[in-house]
Amino acid sequence: MGHPFPIREIARQAGLSEATVDRVLNGRGGVRESTAREVHRAIADLDRQRTQVRLVGRTFMVDIVMQSPERFSTAVRAALEAELPSLHPAVVRSRYHFRETGPAEELVAVLDRIARRGSQGVLLKAPDVPEVTAAVGRLAAAGVPVVTLVTDLPVSARVGHVGSDNRAAGATAAYLMGQWLGDRPGNVLTSLSSGFFRNEEEREMGFRSTMRARHPERTLVEIAEGQGLDATQYDLVRAALERDPEIRAVYSIGGGNIATLRAFEDAGRECAVFIAHDLDHDNTRLLRELRLSAVLHHDLRHDLREACHLVMRAHGALPPAGPTLPSAIQVVTPYNMPAPVVAG
């Protein structure tokens, strides 16, 4: 069994003699199975304690770079700050670079400034475009690990990704949509903030493929490029409703849900089923008011904790681990809403 600890240290941790530890490690026999387990447990304990020693006094300055509506970036900030105490004995400090929209060149300029200035890590939510992928490569070359958050850049030099299984989330939305619409006629409006965010593209693909398989009679009407902002979303939805009088339901992949509902109201149309993503402050209020049918949510605190751990591992402050698993998808209704995140 490979390990970095002297026999004397293992023996002291296990409360056994050095001779007994030596027999266990070298497989010489003559040792009870329970004693062998104590030796292996002592090695595992020493490894955990060594990790804690490596973390004591370490400060990780992490930059969070996001292109996202304010309501979601606010939720991410609150989730990270709520998780900071759980990362002790390490100390994580954060700098925020949030913007709602804009050309890729501006986002790239932010990433390049971080590469020149230095950082222990970047948590990044950005469109999957070549310019951003190249900037991630420059960060990696400068020794700055990048973790993608919520939406991935799979061909970039990022060290890992945290978020939910977006195709499964889209398929789940389609299943719920079909169940709740039942035999009522009507088409479904699918709304993306942008075609350049991979997570939204994957949600749309999961939704579309499942709807085609289970409900081929329903037409899906897509709108995009509203950036999840109410000001642009309203016009897109209102135009779609005027073009198609059969739209009766919404799968909101990219947000702007207050504007979407207002467009239905102003057009005098009913939205029979409305499924959205993420429990930001807008969706939380709309769900409580029974104006949304359900919100597909994943635990942002879990995602931010895993992202920070990936940064720490990239610096050798935590031992290697297996691949990061997708966050669990929660179907949240007005009757099972989780407690609000309170920043610590």
Automatic annotation (TrEMBL):
Domain HTH lacI-type span(s) in chain numbering: 7-57
Keywords: DNA-binding, Transcription, Transcription regulation
PROSITE patterns linked to this entry: HTH_LACI_2
InterPro entries referenced in this protein's UniProt entry, alphabetically: HTH_LacI, Lambda_DNA-bd_dom_sf, Peripla_BP_I, SBP_2_dom
SUPFAM superfamilies in the cross-refs: lambda repressor-like DNA-binding domains, Periplasmic binding protein-like I
GO MF: DNA-binding transcription factor activity; transcription cis-regulatory region binding
Key word Transcription present: yes
Superkingdom: Bacteria
Gene3D superfamilies: 3.40.50.2300, lambda repressor-like DNA-binding domains (1.10.260.40)
PANTHER family: LACI-RELATED TRANSCRIPTIONAL REPRESSOR (PTHR30146), TRANSCRIPTIONAL REGULATORY PROTEIN (PTHR30146:SF152)
Protein name: DNA-binding protein
Origin species: Streptomyces gancidicus BKS 13-15
Top-level taxonomy: Bacteria, Bacillati, Actinomycetota, Actinomycetes, Kitasatosporales
